[in-house]
Amino acid sequence: xxxxxxxxxxxxxxxxxxxxxxxxxxxxxxxxxxxxxxxxxxxxxxxxxxxxxxxxxxxxxxxxxxxxxxxxxxxxxxxxxxxxxxxxxxxxxxxxxxxxxxxxxxxxxxxxxxxxxxxxxxxxxxxxxxxxxxxxxxxxxxxxxxxxxxxxxxxxxxxxxxxxxxxxxxxxxxxxxxxxxxxxxxxxxxxxxxxxxxxxxxxxxxxxxxxxxxxxxxxxxxxxxxxxxxxxxxxxxxxxxxxxxxxxxxxxxxxxxxxxxxxxxxxxxxxxxxxxxxxxxxxxxxxxxxxxxxxxxxxxxxxxxxxxxxxxxxxxxxxxxxxxxxxxxxxxxxxxxxxxxxxxxxxxxxxxxxxxxxxxxxxxxxxxxxxxxxxxxxxxxxxxxxxxxxxxxxxxxxxxxxxxxxxxxxxxxxxxxxxxxxxxxxxxxxxxxxxxxxxxxxxxxxxxxxxxxxxxxxxxxxxxxxxxxxxxxxxxxxxxxxxxxxxxxxxxxxxxxxxxxxxxxxxx
Length: 508
Ligand code: SAH
Fold this sequence. Notes:
Methyltransferase, Cobalt-precorrin-4 Transmethylase, Domain 2, 5-stranded parallel β-sheet, single chain, Cobalt-precorrin-4 Transmethylase, domain 1, binds S-adenosyl-L-homocysteine, alpha/beta
């Protein structure tokens, strides 16, 4: 049989419990190659950014009480899309075969003769307790684990959950779904002879920046849930191992745990900042306000790029400018040497790094990451009189550079390399979360992120504070009526992250 015939047309993929780092390599590969993605409420939507832009992304819902599509509808959709000859990825929270109705979807595909594969995922049943500092097995405490669901098919007349048997079994018991029914469930467990003082932990939004854990005993957990307004989705752990959390709670103690932080860079650039904040425990909302587009007059810039070799200096002020320049450059030329003797200046380490990514040397990189510093640096080097300088900048950038360099006698071509346009999509649901849940802090990494954010006209969540990458950005924020609570001392991403960490470190 040919491999082609057997190649899966639909992949049932476990998306893991939420933390992007807990997605398998195979799952990521499936997403990268997908033509259609059907995803659930519990999948972290951030992973959709791995998909090709062209992939069709379909939200299948299934938040309790909100069924965007019925199960039959989902089954039929998978078969239909696969039969169109497209690579279909069915992304399901946790593991697809653990209380996720993945089995039914596989049956539907099998019945329709659609070749499929199953990509197991890290289930919340195991990852949830782990991130709460609860080992589900522990030598001397228990020798077996039971997984059960607290939310059975409501159509069933009789419960198949045998609480007496659960009570008999002992060990660690992990319940998925059914937190809203914890009152009835704990009552049944007590009636079946389980100890009232048995430790219980509920972990909601486990492994994400919004993880919260509630600990109690079988006799008081329902009351605690009611008192704190603790909500689904959550995993419940019943067993003596819950007490180990006192020593082993690692995840919820990180410096930014419990802080919801908004990142406003473009989707393509947000990654590094988001990742560094997440590692410190923040719940990051990636809310890009802008998207990078070619400049209005691309031809004009292309003509400057074509003459790159005729310049003494090319000055890059942002990684976007570098990308845009070299995209064009390598469309025009297939040899890096076509850049001739032009020397390169870059503002900021990220910009310099991007130049180096193209295997070119950065000849001048001021210590400070602002336009004025380049001017100073050129002065130190003996001036730029009669030198030809090409700038590769954003549309509507400040005019400090062309003005000052021209004043020093240089012949300046102000190349408009790209422009920023408002981002209006909400692919990852961050906008919805911002309006529903608010945020503690918003980060601005350039003046344009501030301007663009304010231009979106989104409501400002109560108490949301502002962190800025440096004085220029801060000034823009103040001019627009904002109060800047944190300003980075080093004006780059690690500098901003450090400032945020210190801000929260010294406050509590
Ligand atoms: N297949 C999934 C489970 C699907 S059933 C898995 O393997 O994890 C849905 C239930 O999973 C939710 O009601 C909740 O109990 C649990 N769940 C999934 N992700 C969760 C998370 N990040 N935090 C807490 N509970 C989660």
